[in-house]
């Protein structure tokens, strides 16, 4: 009986050691998996954040500073910033060449995404502000967004200018969005019969988000685009 008892004790000890080792291995695997996920997606902004970006639709470069997480930068014509992340109680503010633009300001709420276009005339810089929400439309497809900043133009965006219509009757100062299958295509923006130069759509995967901008004037529209990206985490200075 003693011999059986000794064997049982050793067996229990071995099983305990195996369980401890298995638990440690499982924890290590879970930690590694969490690290992989963090590496893949990166740190995420707070759930109650709002977002702000700028596109320069003028023919001149602009020195732009946004409230939030995006660093000050010089924007060439047709170039857009990333989305600056605004934490609660951070006002939406756009500064161009050292001057705060009053027409770019406005209240923002959690989940809002504000896009501001910058135009310049003899009186200086002016802003057009369009606010929306940026939830994913379809996780199995890419999301395509469009903004029309052409005064007096009901814009159309189509494939090659004569192919399938991607966005139709996009009024001035408006935005729209749709889910698309990841495809290769050249898109053209139109104001009536006036057409932009073709814009090659980059390779987009399911879950990606890309924004198109129509700007210029109704007689000579311009179409540009940018991948939607967040300036997060904030740069360390």
Automatic annotation (TrEMBL):
The keyword S-adenosyl-L-methionine does not apply. Residues 1-32 form the signal peptide. It holds the Pfam family AlgF. Keywords: Alginate biosynthesis, Periplasm, Signal. Transmembrane segments: none annotated. It is found in: Periplasm. Pathway: Glycan biosynthesis; alginate biosynthesis. It comes from the Bacteria. Coiled coil: none annotated. Its main location: periplasm. Belongs to the AlgF family. This is Alginate biosynthesis protein AlgF. It comes from Paraburkholderia bengalensis. The lineage of its organism: Bacteria, Pseudomonadati, Pseudomonadota, Betaproteobacteria, Burkholderiales.
């Amino acid at each position: 009986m003693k011999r059986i008892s000794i064997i049982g004790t050793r067996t229990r000890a071995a099983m305990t050691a195996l369980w401890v080792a298995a638990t440690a291995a499982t924890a290590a695997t879970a930690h590694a998996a969490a690290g992989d996920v963090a590496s893949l997606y990166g740190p995420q902004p707070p759930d109650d954040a709002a977002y702000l970006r700028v596109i320069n639709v003028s023919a001149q470069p602009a020195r732009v500073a946004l409230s939030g997480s995006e660093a000050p930068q010089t924007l060439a014509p047709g170039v857009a910033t990333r989305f600056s992340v605004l934490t609660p109680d951070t006002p939406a503010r756009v500064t161009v060449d050292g001057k705060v633009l009053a027409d770019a300001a406005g209240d923002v709420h959690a989940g809002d995404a504000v896009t501001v276009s910058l135009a310049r005339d003899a009186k200086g810089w002016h802003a057009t502000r369009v606010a929306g929400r940026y939830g994913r439309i379809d996780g199995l497809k890419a999301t395509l967004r469009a903004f029309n900043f052409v005064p007096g133009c009901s814009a159309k965006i189509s494939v090659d200018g004569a192919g399938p219509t991607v966005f139709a009757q996009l009024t001035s100062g408006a935005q729209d969005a749709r889910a698309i299958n990841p495809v290769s295509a050249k898109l053209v923006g139109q104001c009536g019969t006036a057409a932009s130069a073709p814009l090659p759509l980059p390779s987009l995967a399911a879950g990606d988000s890309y924004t198109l901008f129509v700007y210029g004037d109704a007689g000579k529209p311009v179409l540009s685009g940018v991948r939607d990206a967040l300036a997060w985490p904030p740069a360390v200075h």
